[in-house]
Amino acid sequence: MGASRSPDDRALLISVWTSAVFAVVALAWGLAAGSQLIVFDGLYSFASVGLSLIAVLALRTARKGPDERYPWGREAWEPLTVVVKAAALAGLSVYALVGAIGEILAGGRDVSVGWALGYGIVATLAGGAVSVVLRRRSRAGGSDLVRAEAVEWLGDTLLSLAVLAGFAVAAVLVGTGRADLARYVDPVMVALVSAAFLPVPAKLVVGAFRELLAMAPPPHLQARIRAVVRDVERSYGFTESFVRASKVGGRLDVEVEFVVGDDSTAQTVHQFDAVRADLEERFGELGRLISMSVGFTADRRWAM
């Protein structure tokens, strides 16, 4: 059964299992050290476990393809899952920020600096390793869910790095006899990290909503699609072409309308089908699932 898993499935499952281990270790370590920042890291990892499992299920659902219930396919489950993941992480960050501000106003908290430093080193190294694995898969053609997972792990690694840096400062303060100031390190770091991380889920939500609303794909994809259509337009001598495109999950929806002139080399139904086949082959080089609709008209008003 493991051999049948796709690279995206394997990448997401690595994220799930690593998040589960992180969650248990961070919560236990945070309680032992008395650090709210480490506990926040554990809660973040617990949230990641559930959200990553949802991502795996969404990816498998999207791959089932169209049927009577989903005539256009199930790819919309991918951006929908990204929205849920991002909203949950944003909520957790806001909760941590409010709690940290409360602790600062209450005079901070005592933390076992040695335990906290040890956790910071372990968490940074482990989080960095998982982040690299997911980013490599993302750059190798991974789904949007894998890309969202990679962004999430990058945020977690930065959080762990902040833990390490923050408690290094706390160790210096304690060593110089300023334990009173060291009490503020933990809540201040929680506030800074959670506030700094809020733009990450916000960016994911914006991108996912663009797909759910069937808005245009990113500019680089639009440029490649239009370049392909223009090449076909020139090859067959069409008068003009119009392109509409949107991206939903791993699928690109492309509608092309060609205005046929008297001098165009394609004039019959069979020749139009040859144009469609040519377009399909060229779009295949984009490396994405393409849902394509191609029309032909002699009157440009029907194409606009």
Tell me the overall shape. Answer: elongated
Order of helices and strands: HHHHHHHHHEEHE
Corresponding CATH superfamily of the largest domain:
Cation efflux protein transmembrane domain
User: Strand pairing plus helix content: what structural class?
Assistant: mainly alpha
| Biggest pleated-sheet summary | 3 strands, mixed
pLDDT under 50 segments (min length 5)?
none
Short description:
This protein has about 300 residues and is mainly alpha-helical. The protein is built from 10 helices and 3 strands; from the N terminus they run αααααααααββαβ.
Topology:
Elements (H helix, E strand, L loop, with lengths): L6 H27 L2 H27 L14 H29 L7 H27 L4 H32 L3 H4 L2 H13 L1 H14 L6 H18 L3 E9 L2 E9 L9 H15 L5 E9 L7
Parallel strand pairs: 2-3
Antiparallel strand pairs: 1-2
Helix pairs in contact: 1-2, 1-4, 1-5, 2-3, 2-5, 3-7, 3-8, 4-5, 5-7, 9-10
Key attributes of the depicted protein:
304 residues, Alpha-Beta Plaits, 2 domains, three-stranded mixed beta sheet, 10 helices, 3 strands, 9% strand, elongated
Question: Can you describe this structure?
Answer:
- By secondary structure, the protein is mainly alpha-helical.
- It folds into two domains: 2-212, Cation efflux protein transmembrane domain (Alpha-lytic protease prodomain-like, Up-down Bundle); 219-302, Alpha-Beta Plaits (2-Layer Sandwich), CATH 3.30.70.1350.
- It is built from ten helices and three strands, in the order H-H-H-H-H-H-H-H-H-E-E-H-E.
- It has helices spanning 7-33, 36-62, 77-105, 113-139, 144-175, 179-182, 185-197, 199-212, 219-236, 269-283; strands at residues 240-248, 251-259, 289-297.
- Strands 1-2-3 form a three-stranded mixed sheet.
- Helix 10 (269-283) links the parallel strand 2 (251-259) and strand 3 (289-297).
- The longest helix is centred in the middle third of the chain and has 32 residues, at 144-175.
- It is elongated and about 90 Å long.
- 39% of the residues are buried.
- The model has no long low-confidence stretch (mean pLDDT 83).
